[in-house]
Amino acid sequence: MHASFINIIGKIRTTLKRLVPFTAVATLLLVIWAVLALNDTFCSDRSFAVFDDNESFLGPVLSWISRAIQNGEIPLRTSSALGGLPLYNLAQLSFLYPFYFTIFDLFYEPIICMRSMHIIVLIHIFIFGVNSYILMRSGNISRPASVIGAALVALSANSADYSMWINTIAAYSWVPLYLAGVTRILNGSSPRVWIPVAVAALVFLTLASPAQPLIHAVFLTTILSIVWWWWNGGRLQSRIKANHLLRLALAALVAALLAAPGYVPTMLEYPQMTRWLGAFPPIQGYTRIPFEAFLCDQVSLRDAGGVLVPAKGPAVGSMFLGPVIVFFALFAVFSRTKSSKWMTIAMFIICVYSLLSSFGANLGLAYINYYIPLVNKIREPSRFLVLFQLAATYLAAVGLDTLVRDIKLCKMRKEPDGRFACKVML
Length: 426
Hints:
This protein is about 60% helix and about 0% strand. The protein contains 17 helices and two strands. A two-stranded antiparallel ribbon has the order 1-2.
C-alpha cells in the first residue's frame, strides 16, 4: 500500500514536470517575490510617476504621443511642451516602443497618466526579472539559483532608483535578454531561436531609450565577444569561431535595421542638437564633453562602503549589494563552478570595471573612459552601477549554485562537516 502510494506520487510528479515547465514555475515565483517586495508600491499614496522627470517631462510627452495616436496622427512633434518639442528625433524615447502602450487611451488626464506610468514601471520591473532569469539559465546556472538571482537583479536598490525614469527602467529591462541571446549565439546554440531573441531584445531596448542603455549594450557585447574568443582560443577552430561571430554580427545588423526609426533621425540631426550638461555650459552636437562635466555624480571614495551597507550614494543608481550577495559573488570567483566559465570571467571583468568606473577620476578610469567611443557620451560615472549590479548578482547566483552543488557532493562523499566548512572558508 505504502509503495503503491509512493509510485502514484512519483508518476504525478513526473507528469507535472512534463506538463509544467520549470520556467513557468520560476515566473510564478518571481511574481510572488515581486508582489511581496513591492508591496508598498501598490498603496494609493505611492507612485513612481511623481518623480521629477516622470511628472514634468516624460508623462506629458507620453500623453501627447497617445493623444496624437488616438486622433489618427503620427506623433512627430508636440506643440506645447518646451515650446514645441520634436518627437521623431527624441533621444529620450521613441513613440514606436510598444510597451509604453501609447496606442491605448491611458494618458488622457494627469491622475490617469500617473497611474498608467506607475503600472508600466511595475511591468518592466517584472520583465527585468524574467529576462534576468533567462540570462542566468544561459550561463548554465541551476534553475533555483537563477530564480533567486533574477529576483535580486529586478528588485535591487539600483532598479528601484532607475524606476524614477520610466524610459530608463524600460530600456534596461531588455539588456539581460539581449545578453542571453549574445551568450547563446556565441556558444553555438540554435541560431534560429537565439538570433531572433537577441534581435528583438536589442530593438526593444533601442526604441525604449536610444541612449545610455544602447551604449552599454554595445560595451557589454564587446567584452563578452573578446572573453569568449580568448577562452576558446585553443578549443574551437578559427572557422567555427568566425562563424559564431558572423551570426552575432547578423543579429546586430538586423536589429540596427529594425530599430532604425528610433535612432537614425537622432543621429542625422545630432550635429545641430544642443546637449545640456547641468551646471556646466551646454555643448553643440559632437563637441566633446568637458572633462569636468564628465565627472558629474561620480562616487566618492568615502562612499565605497555602500556596496556592503545602505548609505547615501550618487544621485543616479545605487551600489548597494549587501554582504550576502558579495560573499556569494566572491565564492563564484574563487571556486570551481559548473556554470559557463567564460561567462563567469566576463561578468567578473564587467563587475570590477563598472564598479571602478563609477568612481570616475577618484580611481582613474574616467581618464580611460573619456577616450572610449560611445562610452564617452555618458557623462555620469554612476551610470556604470547598473552594469555592476547586474554582473555582481549574476556572480552571486553562480556562487550560490556552486555552494549548493558542493554541499550535495560532500554529502554524497560523506565528508565531515568540519572539512566542508574549511573548503568554504578557503
